Amino acid sequence: MKPLEIFIDIISPYAYLGLELFSRHALSEKLEFTITPVALGSILNVTGNPGPANIAPKRKVALLDFCMQCALYEIPAQGPPQHPFNPMPVLRFLHCIDDQDLRLRAALWLNKACWADGLAVDDEDAISLVLSQSDFYLGEWGDISALIKEKRARKAVKLATARAVELDVFGVPTFRYDGINFWGSDRLELLAAYIEAPDKFNDTHYSKMLNTPSGF
Fold first, then answer.
1. How far is residue 107's CA from residue 97's CA, in Å, rounded to a whole number?
2. CA 110 to CA 122: how far, in whole Å?
3. Quick one: residue 82, left, alpha or beta (phi over 0 = left, psi -120 to 50 = alpha)?
4. What are the sequence ranges of the domains in the chain?
């Protein structure tokens, strides 16, 4: 099987939901994966795609959908103390973790703190405090500001975000496998089906529909 790349941003409730579902799915044990934190706000700006928070009906529907899905899968959710918030400290910190299994654990822990426990994780001190409650806390995480600077994590987030745009990533979570973007927290079963039998998806009319001329 080929490697999987998962694009996330803690600012999105669906990234939290997607990571939780992925961690419970058999794919998390079968696949070699990379967790790639990106700045969703920058992606939305570049692609001219307003986020749900900026469209009142979409915000209401999306939040209800998120809460209902969390209830369906028994995933706790109450939301952060304020939203939107600054996700950059978390994104930069996660890029400092080279081991992908540990990066996933840290991402899950921080997302749970934010979206399940309602805690603020929008600065380095808050991140360090939250992580100190985990069973995988590392001493080097005590000064996250220094770690981010040492690892040049600011640049890492910018490069990852630019690369995501080049790969047609426009939202999170996006599960990228075999050059295909599976967008959304509800795409794991489709991804699993594709991995099991990719030839099944060869005879679609995607190319025709993609190139259909406008009728206006």
1. 10
2. 10
3. beta
4. 4-210
Percent of the chain with pLDDT over 70: 100
Strands across the sheet containing 33-37: 33-37, 4-8, 174-177, 180-183
Rounded Cα distance between 70 and 192, Å, is 21
Query: Is residue 53 pLDDT above 90, yes or no?
Result: no
Two tokens, residue 208: 């025709």
Which amino acid, residue 139?
G
The amino acid at residue 43 is: I
What pLDDT does 19 receive? Answer: 98
Q: What are phi and psi of 105, to 5 degrees?
A: -60, -45
Between helices 88-95 and 153-166, what is the axis angle to 10°?
100
pLDDT band per the 50, 70, 90 thresholds, residue 203: confident
Give the mean pLDDT of 168-187. Answer: 98
The yes/no answer on whether domain 4-210 falls in CATH 3.20.20.510 is no
